[in-house]
Each structure stands twice: as C-alpha cells, then as structure tokens.
C-alpha cells in the first residue's frame, strides 16, 4: 500500500507540507503497538474477569461494585470520545482513531507518483460504509428495544404479543425456571441462565415485563 504514517508534530517545524514529512519515532511506534494490541487485550480480559466475578451484583462487596462502576464509566467515556473523534475525522480527515490523534500520527501517501490500484469511487464507498457501520455499532446499543416494542404495540394487530403469559414462567424462554432467580428491584422470576446471559450481554438490561433496568440478580428464596 502507498500509505505511511507521518509525525504531524514536526511538520510545522520543518515547514514541509503535502506528502512530505518525517515518519513516526520509535517511541510513537511502541506506544501505538501497545495501545492497539496490549490495550485491547487487557481491556477485554478485564471485562471478562469482572463479568465472571459478578462485580455488578448487589451482594458483592462495595469495592467490587465500585470497580464495576469505574469500568462501565470508562467504557462510556471511551465510546463518547470515539464518537466525537469520528465526527472530527469526517470533518477534517486527519486522525481516524483516538490513538492517532494523541500521537499526532497521520496517514499520508508514501509516493505521489505511484499509480492508483483502486479507483476513487471504490475508496469513497468503502470509507463511507466503514464509518457508517462504526456509527451503527455505537448507536444500536443505545436504542431500547423494549421501549420501541411498547410504542409499536398499540399499532399491532396482534394485541396478545405484549403478553408474557404466566407470571411464574420465565419471560425469556417462557418456561418454568429450573433454577429460579429474581431480578432486582422488580422481583420478577427468571431462569438463572436466561437472566445471567442477558445481563452479561448488556449492562442496562431491562425486564421484559415492567421495562425496568435490572441492577442485580438474586436466587429466589435467599435472604
């Protein structure tokens, strides 16, 4: 590929514009590698470990719940910063990621006289689709499917679609819970595996019966 990273910090000093300019330093390359490889690995392992240890459950120690809150807040701040950086990239076209913006590393052409192997039309289409898919991945988890279903329920012909059947059954699998757990604070019964998988998939899972956020789960009958 006819692309390379340029250190934008030294461009105003050297006075070089366009495609010219120095490449990344050794420290920038090391930080870039650690951020993309080590950072993503450590963050994924931290999320898996916190979900496995159930830091967000109500019966956990205050330190574990506080750590879970910090993890969720850090993830939210990173997603918001990524979205803001995406808007800046679409406007200026300089830094595609937050790491590139911190390092002042900009992708430029390595050789201006190299023949183009891909047409502009394909490159523009690929760029637009890539950024559009990233925006969808960011916005779709924010949509509350339960609220959408509740809003569309009066317009549906099948009025029984909003009924979840017997209150004793699990609202997810519609069967009697083999290991009954209750969602807090709404106190509705679930199967343990159904409720655990939903809460692990999203931190703001809402009860299908009452549309209330499930903050913790508890075995039925336990104090």
Automatic annotation (TrEMBL):
Pfam hit, one: Pex2_Pex12
Annotated metabolic or biological route of this protein: Protein modification; protein ubiquitination
GO cellular component, one term: peroxisomal membrane
Membrane topology summary: Multi-pass membrane protein
One annotated GO biological process: protein import into peroxisome matrix
UniProt KW keywords: Membrane, Metal-binding, Peroxisome, Protein transport, Transferase, Transmembrane, Transmembrane helix, Transport, Ubl conjugation pathway, Zinc, Zinc-finger
Record-annotated RING-type domain positions: 170-211
Gene3D superfamilies reported in the protein's UniProt record: Zinc/RING finger domain, C3HC4 (zinc finger)
Catalytic class of the enzyme: transferase
GO molecular function, one term: ubiquitin protein ligase activity
Keyword Coiled coil: no
Chief location bin: membrane
Coiled coil feature spans: none
Name of the protein this chain belongs to: RING-type E3 ubiquitin transferase (cysteine targeting)
Organism, as annotated: Setaria italica
């Amino acid at each position: 590929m006819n692309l390379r990273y340029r250190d934008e910090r030294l461009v105003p000093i050297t006075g070089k514009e366009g495609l010219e300019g120095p490449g990344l330093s050794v420290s920038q390359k090391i930080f870039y590698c650690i951020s993309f490889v080590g950072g993503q690995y450590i963050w994924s392992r931290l999320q898996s470990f916190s979900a496995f240890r159930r830091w967000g459950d109500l019966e956990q120690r205050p330190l574990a719940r506080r750590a879970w809150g910090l993890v969720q807040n850090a993830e939210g701040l990173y997603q918001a910063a990524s979205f803001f950086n995406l808007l800046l990239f679409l406007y200026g076209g300089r830094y595609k990621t937050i790491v590139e913006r911190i390092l002042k590393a900009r992708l430029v052409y390595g050789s201006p006289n190299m023949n183009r192997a891909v047409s502009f039309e394909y490159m523009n289409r690929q760029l637009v689709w890539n950024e559009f898919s990233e925006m969808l991945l960011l916005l779709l988890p924010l949509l509350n499917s339960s609220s959408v279903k509740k809003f569309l329920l009066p317009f549906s012909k099948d009025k029984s679609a909003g009924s979840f059947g017997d209150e004793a059954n699990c609202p997810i699998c519609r069967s009697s819970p083999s290991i009954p757990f209750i969602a807090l604070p709404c106190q509705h019964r679930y199967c343990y595996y159904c409720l655990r998988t939903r809460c692990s998939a999203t931190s703001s899972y809402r009860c299908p019966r009452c549309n209330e956020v499930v903050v913790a789960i508890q075995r039925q009958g336990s104090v």
